[in-house]
Design a protein that fits this description.
Layout: E1 3-9, H1 13-24, E2 33-39, H2 46-57, E3 63-68, H3 74-84, E4 89-94, E5 97-98, H4 103-112, E6 117-121, E7 124-125, H5 131-141, E8 159-161, E9 168-170, H6 171-177, H7 188-198, E10 203-210, E11 212-214, H8 219-236, H9 250-271, H10 279-301, H11 312-348, H12 352-372
Parallel strand pairs: 1-2, 1-4, 2-3, 6-10, 7-11
Antiparallel strand pairs: 4-9, 5-11, 6-9, 8-10
Helix pairs in contact: 1-2, 3-12, 6-12, 8-11, 9-10, 9-11, 10-11
C-alpha cells in the first residue's frame, strides 16, 4: 500500500530537521511513501528546510511535495495536505513529534489487518532536558496536569477510542466524510473524529504503534498553550458540543467554583452571614489536598528527584486556572466568533461546510486518478 505522510509546520525550524531524519530512517519502503509537506506561512526557515529536503531526496520517495497554507490554521493546513495526498493511507504527523523507525510500518500493518483508522500512544518527551523542563514534563505527563486521554500514555492492548493524535486513515475515510472544519482551531481533530464515528467508522488504538510529542519548554509557553486549548473548548461548544466530553470542562468548573466561592466570601464578610464564607476555604482545602497527593505521585514516578519539583503544586494550579479561564473566555467570545464567520462567509461566498465538501470531492478525484493509472 502507498502512504502519504503529511507534516504541517509553522515556525518549526528548531525541530524539523531531526523529524525529517527520522522520516528518512523509516523501515517502510520509501518508494511506497509520498511526503506531503505543508508550510503555514512560517517566518523562519521552515519552508526552506522543506524545500531543501524535497530537492535532495525527492528521487528516493514516491514523491515529495511542498505546499503553502496561507491561512496558517491547523485545519486549513491539513485540508491542503488532503488535496495533494494520493496514497492509499494518509498519516497525520505533527512537526513537534518524534517517531521510531517502524512508525509507518506498524500503521500500515494495522490498516492491512482491516482497520480504517488507527494510531497509538503519544507520550511526551523533553527537548534538551533541564531540571525545570523535567518538572514541566511531570506536570504535562500527569493525568492531573494534562488529561485522561489514552493517547497520552502507552497502553497494553488494542482498543477503540474517540480520538487520537498522529492517526493513519484509509483514503476512503476522507472520501466519505470530507476534510477538516476550518472554522475551528485546536479542536479540528475532535470534530473530524466525531464525523468519522457518526459515519460508522471505528478508531483503533494499538500498543504496537508509538510516537512522541515534545512538551513546551517554558512555563509561559505551556500556559499559553493551555489557555488556547481551553479557549477552543469553549468556542467549540457552538459548533460541535458532541465532540467534547465532560472532562474537557473540569478546569472550567473549577474556575467557576473559585469565582462563586470568592463572591460568597465577600458577600458573607459584608452581610455577616458566616456560612456564605465557608465554600471557598473548603474548596481550596480540598483542591490543595488533591494537588499535594498528585504531586507526590508525580514526583514518586520521576527517575530523578530535584528541588525544583517543589514547584509542581503551583504549576498544577496555574495549568488548571489558565485552562479554565480560557474556556470561560471562549464561551463568552462564541457569539463574536460566529458573527465574524458569518461576515467572512458573505464576503468570500463560501463556508466551512463547503470547504469540507470540496476537500471530499478532491480526495475522490485523486482516488479516480490513481485507479486509472
Amino acid at each position: 500500500m502507498t502512504v502519504s505522510l503529511c507534516i504541517i509546520a509553522y515556525n518549526e525550524e528548531k525541530v524539523l530537521e531531526e523529524l525529517l531524519r527520522q522520516v528518512q530512517a523509516q523501515s517502510y519502503p520509501a518508494r511506497l511513501t509520498e511526503l506531503v509537506l505543508v508550510d503555514s506561512a512560517s517566518q523562519d526557515r521552515t519552508k526552506e528546510i522543506f524545500s531543501e529536503f524535497a530537492r535532495r531526496f525527492s528521487q528516493s520517495y514516491l514523491s515529495v511535495g511542498v505546499y503553502d497554507n496561507p491561512r496558517r490554521s491547523q485545519a486549513a493546513g491539513w485540508n491542503t495536505a488532503l488535496r495533494h495526498a494520493t496514497g492509499d493511507i494518509i498519516i497525520r504527523l505533527d512537526a513537534h513529534a518524534e517517531i521510531p523507525e517502524d512508525f509507518i510500518l506498524q500503521n500500515v500493518r494495522l490498516i492491512e489487518s482491516g482497520e480504517d483508522i488507527c494510531g497509538g500512544a503519544r507520550p511526551n518527551r523533553i527537548d534538551r532536558p533541564t531540571p525545570f523542563k523535567k518538572m514541566l514534563f511531570l506536570a504535562e505527563s500527569s493525568m492531573f496536569g494534562s488529561s485522561i486521554a489514552g493517547y497520552r500514555r502507552q497502553n497494553e492492548e488494542k482498543k477503540y477510542v474517540r480520538s487520537l493524535f498522529h492517526g493513519a486513515y484509509r483514503r476512503d475515510v476522507f472520501a466519505a466524510v470530507g476534510g477538516f472544519n476550518e472554522d475551528l482551531g485546536r479542536t479540528e481533530d475532535n470534530e473530524l473524529h466525531n464525523r468519522i464515528r457518526r459515519a460508522g467508522y471505528r478508531i483503533c488504538q494499538s500498543s504496537e504503534i508509538l510516537s512522541y510529542q515534545h512538551i513546551r519548554g517554558t512555563l509561559s509557553s505551556m500556559l499559553l498553550q493551555k489557555f488556547a486549548n481551553g479557549k477552543w473548548i469553549g468556542l467549540t461548544l457552538g459548533f460541535c458540543p458532541r465532540c467534547l466530553s465532560v472532562f474537557h470542562f473540569v478546569p472550567f468548573c473549577f474556575v467557576l467554583a473559585l469565582l462563586c466561592g470568592l463572591f460568597g466570601l465577600i458577600a458573607g464578610a459584608v452581610s455577616g452571614i458566616f456560612w456564605l464564607m465557608l465554600p471557598l476555604p473548603l474548596l481550596i482545602g480540598l483542591y490543595l489536598t488533591t494537588d499535594l497527593i498528585m504531586t507526590a505521585s508525580a514526583v514518586a514516578s520521576a527517575e530523578e528527584k530535584h528541588p525544583v519539583q517543589f514547584l509542581l503544586p503551583a504549576v498544577f494550579f496555574l495549568l488548571h486556572v489558565v485552562y479554565g479561564v480560557g474556556t470561560l473566555i471562549g464561551i463568552l467570545a462564541l457569539p463574536f466568533l460566529k458573527a465574524h464567520i458569518r461576515r467572512r462567509n458573505r464576503r468570500t461566498g463560501s463556508s466551512a461546510e463547503q470547504e469540507i465538501e470540496a476537500v471530499r470531492q478532491c480526495v475522490i478525484s485523486n482516488t479516480k486518478k490513481e485507479d486509472q493509472e
